[in-house]
Amino acid sequence: MRHHILQELNFTVREAGDELHGTAEVTPYMHAPGTAHLRTSILASWADMLSGLLAAQVMGPRVPVTLELDVHLYRPAPAAGTIWAAGRAVKKGRSVFVGSVEFSTASGEPVGFSASSFMAAPDATLRMPSLTSLDGISAAPALAVPLADRAGCKRQEPGVAVLPRSEDGLNSSNTVNGGLIALAIEEALLSLAPGTTLCSLALRYMQPVRVGPAVATATLTAGLGQAELRDAGNGNRLSVTATARTFSHRGPAMGGGPAPPARSA
Q: Fewest CB atoms less than 10 Å from the CB: which of 63, 93, 199, 246?
């Protein structure tokens, strides 16, 4: 079986008591187009993975699906080096699970944070893959082309990005992965602000993309953006809405100024 697209980001996850920790090395193929900064959508994908795995520990064997997810950065993300993530449960409900993730560099400088909520998939016949440990999450070759190219995500015109449904881009519910949906929305927004990255991205998942392609449309005014993503092959149904804000990139990048105080563990 072909490995998943997001496995090529080589985000390694391990248990740390009640938390899940993840690490990955940033490469140029992970940069937002026209910048030397890690994509915010990749941080969203990693947050979704950590919090989703924590949700599965509570909701399993039912499959957790993302309801809402947001990511906020203190300053443009690093161009290289190790990103460290710590995910923890905020609310362990059987009907709704809430998680949080904090991102930092290898030296401990805060990068940003995320919050998300999950519910069990309405289809009770869906089951999570059986894993005896996180070692069961297989590795893959490192990303060898820009992430949007690897996912086949195309900017159709300013404010519009199209993501095809592909077998190596699905989740446990057999629908388009939420991290790749974040990528499509990010591409639609950044097409209106070349050379920038997102300092915040908030996603509200209303229904899955079952057929595809997923079509994201966005507007952006004074750095504040709105977007929606629809399942074009499924009656053009609205699947996700989002809000975002861009960096001007006139401020300091990571390592270029005083960091905010570290959040408590």
A: 93
Give me the residue label for tokens 């082309």: 145
Identify whether the C-beta of residue 17 lies closer than 8 Å to the C-beta of residue 88.
no
Place of tokens 């790749």: 180
In the block, residue with structure tokens 């079509």: 215
The pTM assigned to this predicted structure is: 0.91
> pLDDT tens digit string along 185-203?
999 999 999 999 999 999 9
Task: State residue 99 phi and psi, 5-degree precision.
Answer: -130, 165
Q: What is the mean pLDDT of residues 25-34?
A: 98
pLDDT band at 173 (very low <50, low <70, confident <90, very high): confident
Q: How many DSSP H helices and E strands does the chain contain?
A: 3, 12
Report the C-alpha gap between 250 and 257 in whole angstroms. 12
* Inter-helix orientation angle 40-59/178-190, to 10°: 160
- The answer, yes or no, to whether residue 234 has pLDDT greater than 50, is yes
- Angstrom distance (rounded) from CA 247 to CA 167: 33
Encoded tokens for 240: 């996700």
What's phi and psi for 139, nearest 5 deg? -85, 170
Contact 203, 39 (CB under 8 A): no
DSSP annotation of 60: T
Please say whether the dihedral angle defined by the alpha carbons of residues 106, 203, 135 and 39, taken in this order, is positive or negative.
negative
3 state SS of 103: strand
Q: Which structure tokens are listed for 261?
A: 């105080």
How far from 243 is each of 4, 229, 234, CA to CA, in Å? 27, 12, 23
Phi and psi for 186 in degrees, rounded to 5?
Answer: -60, -45
Structure tokens, 36: 């030397």
Q: Give the architecture (CATH level 2) of 5-121+147-246.
A: Beta Barrel (2.40)
Distance between CA atoms of 58 and 98, rounded to whole angstroms? 11
